[in-house]
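Researcher: Quick one. two chains, 226 residues in total.
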Amino acid sequence: DAGVIQSPRHEVTEMGQEVTLRCKPISGHNSLFWYRQTMMRGLELLIYFNNNVPIDDSGMPEDRFSAKMPNASFSTLKIQPSEPRDSAVYFCASSHGQGSDNEQFFGPGTRLTVL
Amino acid sequence: DAKTTQPPSMDCAEGRAANLPCNHSTISGNEYVYWYRQIHSQGPQYIIHGLKNNETNEMASLIITEDRKSSTLILPHATLRDTAVYYCIVRGKAAGNKLTFGGGTRVLVKP
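Model:
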């Protein structure tokens, strides 16, 4: 099992540019999560999907952020336009089933630097 | 979800047991206690979870007090590779799939 796959692993971009982060969940998992981690705010949930449908996007910081899950094996998190304060490590995670008795498996993260 | 309180940091000697405490005094009956850890520059890793009974797996043991207001994660024989930030999370039906991470305990295993 390859685990959760994220790409790119590192991204450096300039302010104002569009950034797209990608995630492939573990095969068979039907829930997918996007988290952001910074020194100041720690690890925060941005959005999560169940069966490809966004369930809770209350953590998405603002309209510059958008996430999609076109099918069960792929999701994107897009930032347009990017700003220096978006610099963080973005993690994708997946789990099987819903509810509070399911563990989440995290990917290695994408380290984003916006100059 | 109930909030958790963990010490910000602790040291442990290699080869000894590491006992990581967590207080969750406002936990409700249907909320689980989860433990994750995050090794530097990696994604969080699931360790163990429990509801009422003590749990053990290949990584650790979870001891939950009878009143469920606190718990202890036990790493039986700590190694240098166990150096990480350990997060105690309480998660219930109201949260659905959501995990809310706090500050965690930074554990340093020393030789």
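Strands of chain B lie at 9-13, 18-23, 32-38, 45-50, 55-56, 61-64, 70-75, 84-91, 105-110.
Researcher: Thanks, that's what I needed.
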